[in-house]
Amino acid sequence: MRDSPAFARQFTSVSHRDESAELGMWVFIATEVLLFGGLLLAYFVYRHAYPQGFATGSRHTEIVIGTANTAILLTSSFLVAWAVEIFSAETRRLTAGLLAGAICLGLAFIVLKGIEYHGEYEEHLVPGIDFRFTGSLANGVQLFFIFYFIATAIHALHMIIGIGLLAVLALLCRNAPSTRHRAGLHSAALYWHFVDIVWIFLFALIYLPGRSIT
Amino acid sequence: MTQSRPSLPLVAAWLGLLGLLALTVTMAYVPLGAANAVVAIGIGITKAALVAAIFMELRHRDALTLLFAGAGLFWLGILLWLGLMDFLTRT
């Protein structure tokens, strides 16, 4: 594996550089945890205040698309973890292929999300644009869908950034894999897995409540 | 020979995550009352732990990295704990 000419002067070795990059990525992820944490806090406060409204709102989401998207993201994370694990000059084509597979799954997630958004627009469930849910639960349902759209849109934005990162790294790794690229891929992979974890919780909070009520 | 297949823990984690997904969707349709939410969030935490330990390689990391990775959860805990205390205890 070709090594980059030098590490920056603040580091004493390549492994020092790579460990610093990993810790830096975890600090960034901590700020992201708190970004989504604020949304989670708002969700729990309003779910506590409007339990039936949230259960009803949840039943209006597409659980088939939500479940498919969860499986898609979990599989894309698996492909990225696999690519990190086998990264080397000899396996660069396979590494790039695995990353391309993860990118395709990420794009499939975005497309399915778009189909879901369109369905909700058709059902008049988009607060602020076209929301026509009437009855005693309307306030709670509206709050649920405000959370739903804000949380899933911020998550989708993270997905699009992650797809861009993986695409750049797939090209770099394919052409000239170095230890710098391995460190870069490792950081991008941490980000991708984090976005996956956020979705795991969004799925549990958005799609699953209220399903057992008949 | 260069390794090109995924390691066993990676494959096991992936299949385990898909299995937990099937379990959590199935359990969502079983009437358990308030326990439905506990089951959904509990399985979510298990899935997140699998991703963190195996995909994010935290099981191979030293205490310093675990400290950095845990810092976000620590502050999230304070945010949710202090933020929800008033709403959950007010009658």
Essential attributes:
heterodimer, A: 214 residues, mainly alpha, Four Helix Bundle (Hemerythrin (Met), subunit A), two-stranded antiparallel sheet, 6 helices, 2 strands, 78% helix, B: 91 residues, 2 domains, 3 helices, 76% helix, flat
User: What is the helix fraction of residues of chain B, given as a range?
Assistant: over 70%
Q: Could you state the order of secondary-structure elements of chain A as H and E?
A: HHHHEEHH
Strand content of chain A: under 5%
Structural class of chain A: mainly alpha
Explain what this protein looks like in three dimensions.
The complex is a heterodimer of chains A (214) and B (91). Chain A is an all-alpha fold. Chain A has a single domain, classed as Four Helix Bundle (Hemerythrin (Met), subunit A), CATH 1.20.120. Chain A is built from 6 helices and 2 strands, in the order ααααββαα. Chain A is elongated, with a radius of gyration of 20 Å. The model of chain A has no long low-confidence stretch (mean pLDDT 93). Chain B is mainly α. Chain B has 2 domains: 1-60; 62-91. Chain B is 76% helix and 0% strand. Chain B has helices at 8-28, 35-55, 63-89. In chain B, α1 packs antiparallel against α2. Chain B is flat. The mean pLDDT of chain B is 93. The interface between A and B is large, with 55 and 49 residues.
